[in-house]
Amino acid sequence: MSKIKKILVANRGEIALRIMRSAHEMDIKTVAVYSEADRQSLHVRYADEAILIGPPPSAESYLRIDKIIAAAKQSGSDAIHPGYGFLSENELFARRVEEEGLAFIGPSAKSIEIMGSKLAAKAAVAKFNVPLVPGTSEPIDDIGKAKKIAAEIGYPILIKASAGGGGKGMRIVEDGKSFEEQMERAVSEATSAFGDGSVFIEKYITKPRHIEFQIFGDKHGNIVHLFERECSIQRRHQKVVEEAPSSVLTPDIRNAMGTAAINVAKSCGYYNAGTVEFIMDDKLNFYFLEMNTRLQVEHPVTEEITGLDLVQLQIKVAEGERFPFRQDELSIHGHALEIRVYAEDPANNFLPDIGTLKTYTRPQGHGIRVDDGFEQGMDIPFYYDPMIAKLICHADTRDAAIRKMIRAIDEYEITGLETTLGFCRFVMEHEAFRSGNFDTRFVENFFKPEAIKEPGDNEAWISAALAATLLNGKNGSHPEPAARAETSVKWRNRRFEG
Ligand code: MV4
Q1: pLDDT band at 475, cuts 50/70/90?
Q2: How far is ligand 1, taken at its centre, from the CA of residue 303, in Å?
Q3: How far, in Å, is the centroid of ligand 1 from the Cα of 206?
Q4: With a 6 A CB cut-off, is 234 part of the ligand 1 pocket?
Q5: For the segment 135-192, what is each residue's pLDDT rounded down to a tens digit?
Q6: CATH of the structural domain 134-203, one choice from 3.20.20.150, 3.30.1490.20, 3.30.470.20, 3.40.190.10
Q7: Class of CATH domain 209-451
Q8: If one looks up domain 6-105 in CATH, what number appears?
Q9: Distance from the CA of 282 to the CA of which of 117, 321, 457, 472 falls in 20 to 30 A?
Q10: Is the Cβ atom of 133 under 6 angstroms away from ligand 1?
């Protein structure tokens, strides 16, 4: 393996920029690929070269292996970074990249393939001392036999599709009465959704926390973990808040989980960055669920607490370098939080609210990081994920990180569309979040759109104007522009209070 000179980034938005920044710091040239919807995007402007690969729909652009390989050849790239989403966990893509003599900045195609199937993953880790949720580890072919196992495990149980993931293809069965019917439905759903009807059953953990471990391997067989991320604050399997470290892990549990995570990675000969996902029950028992064979959206919280640049490490590992640290040289520094700012309307069932960023001003200051792919005046395209930005805060303690996050949310000014900023502020201020005592049902248990008592935009303006008028002691005159703007921002951001 030799030094990489030019990387094609097979992605868009904030993660494409994130990857290119690290590449440039390493004197590596970058090539952007883009769809017709992304002509004006920042990743296109930031790259040394940019190649148009097709119309806006992902299936005709960012998911086209042939076009991306052609762009890599045309530009003389020697490596491809897939980012997250799109082709990042497609083993055919990883294999093709390597067959074309290019470096894939990620794990082997074989690792992706094994971990892409939950049953193959369970089979791989079987001899590696990794705790699994009680259940079956073979595809169910005999419903009668499966029902007996379900009765032994105890209801409720969960039917999962082997080819599923991220919450897709799961079915809860409350008792034996509906077992056969639910099983038939699960198989037929899995067949039509994934083209693979293999399902298995697990005991249903009713109040799980989602805790994942960042692992990193080099191509010389060294694997370390970079501690955990707590991602229990989710909405319909979409993460909303992530943090590191978790406030429930003791050093002993952290060690045990970290060792299990490394064993999962060893079971498939893993190298490069990966994430091992566990669920934890209310008694702090943990179980391996699945492995994500990519750099994750929430990787910045790990970067903040370890001080490492994960993209730089990914590139070095792809170049064949040894991992520069031993496990005992790594430690946790402070506490980091990340919120995902989506162009979605929390008052309206989180419906995407795409449009133009009329004003867009990022928060600043010590311990604040914003990873985004937009500037004021740009449109959030309708074709892709509506995430505007990730806001990351790092401080000495969890409480200080939360306070910093609230300050940053209040100073983040986005107008022109609705965002999840206020919703994230609601989470930050909630007693259950503050105490650290929450699980994956946080949003459904605590968040109700009725909690939003925001006056309509006009009313907010009137209240703001009135307040400013009273403060100024001038009856009927217009408030100063600065006072108006400030008051309206406060209104917008504080609407979830209470
Ligand atoms: C579970 C579970 C309870 N028991 N497995 C959802 C996403 C996928 N990665 C696995 N998931 C779950 N698997 C058993 N045996 C509950 C979930 C689950 C969940 C897990 C992590 C984060 C959020 C979640 C929300 C609902 C259900």
Answers
A1: very low
A2: 26
A3: 9
A4: yes
A5: 998 999 888 988 999 999 999 999 999 988 777 889 999 999 999 999 999 999 999 9
A6: 3.30.1490.20
A7: alpha beta
A8: 3.40.50.20
A9: 117
A10: yes
One-letter identity of residue 434:
R
Bond prior to 156 in cis (omega within 30° of 0): yes
Question: Closest by alpha carbon to 140, among 131, 150, 130, 155?
Answer: 150
Q: Is the CB of 204 under 6 A from ligand 1?
A: yes
Q: Cβ neighbours of residue 348 under 8 Å, at least 6 residues apart? A: 418, 449
Mean pLDDT (the chain, rounded)? 91
Q: What's the pLDDT score for residue 260?
A: 98
Report CA(1)–ligand 1 centroid distance (Å). Answer: 39
Ligand 1 pocket member 279 (CB < 6 A): yes
Q: Phi, psi at residue 145, to the nearest 5°? A: -65, -40
Q: Which atom of ligand 1 is nearest to the CA of 204?
A: 4
Q: Which of 209, 235, 294, 495 is catalytic?
A: 294
Q: Tell me, yes or no, if 95 is annotated catalytic.
A: no
pLDDT attached to residue 452: 54
Total-model pTM: 0.90
What are the sequence ranges of the domains in the chain? Answer: 6-105, 134-203, 209-451, 458-492
Query: Quick one: pLDDT band at residue 482, thresholds 50, 70, 90?
Result: very low
Residues, the chain: 498
